[in-house]
Write a structure and sequence with these properties.
The chain is of the alpha+beta class and 179 residues long. The protein is built from five helices and nine strands, in the order βββαβαββαααβββ. It has two domains: 67 residues, no CATH class; 87 residues, no CATH class. The longest helix has 10 residues. It is elongated and about 70 Å long.
Length: 179
């Protein structure tokens, strides 16, 4: 199994520091898609320690000063939203009108969470709360959406109601009967 770590360091050419760059022991070829969130491939914990010990004499354009383990792979490959009764749907394309009887047409089900009301759902689905270190990037891409934080146009199904996030608050989507 591949390992994932977050590293801190600085660039040799200008001394500019960086933090929380994601590295993996996996080879670039192991990934199906472009993994732009991976800073460096083929680097396990032992390799990280060796680079730290070598300092500026590594042959790389950067120096690693610190590192820590991250559960990136485990989180990215699973549904890490807290399982519950409230469905969370993210909008695929901006501006399309949602049909509460056919949410799949305009939205993607991100998962189901536990929450007592719409405000709690909205708060839990902000990126800084459910993906504070970018853990959800792979899930977001896999679902075909382009945002981590719940925003205007996204939908929740809670307490038997389908609510869309509006500019101010939430609006219930009601089914209009066809005649």
């Amino acid at each position: 199994m591949n390992s994932y770590h977050l590293i801190d360091g600085y660039w040799l050419n200008d001394g500019v520091r960086f933090t929380d760059r994601l590295v993996t022991s996996a080879a670039y070829e192991d990934f199906d898609d472009d993994e732009s969130d991976i800073f460096f491939f083929d680097l396990d914990e032992e390799g990280i320690r060796e680079l730290i010990e070598k300092g500026e004499d590594t042959g790389e354009e950067f120096v690693i000063t610190d590192y820590r383990f991250t559960m990136y792979e485990t989180i990215a490959e699973s549904n890490f939203l807290e399982e519950g009764e409230v469905q969370v749907w993210y909008q695929k394309d901006w501006g399309e009108t949602a049909d509460p009887n056919n949410l799949e047409k305009t939205h993607v089900l991100m998962g189901s969470i536990r929450a007592d009301d719409e405000e709690e759902v909205y708060l839990k689905m902000q990126g800084e709360n459910w993906s504070p270190m970018g853990e959800a990037r792979t899930l977001v891409r896999a679902k075909g959406v382009h945002h981590t934080s719940m925003m205007v146009g996204d939908i929740m199904v809670i307490n038997g109601k389908t609510l869309v996030v509006a500019i101010l608050g939430f609006q219930e989507l009601v089914t209009v009967p066809t005649e």
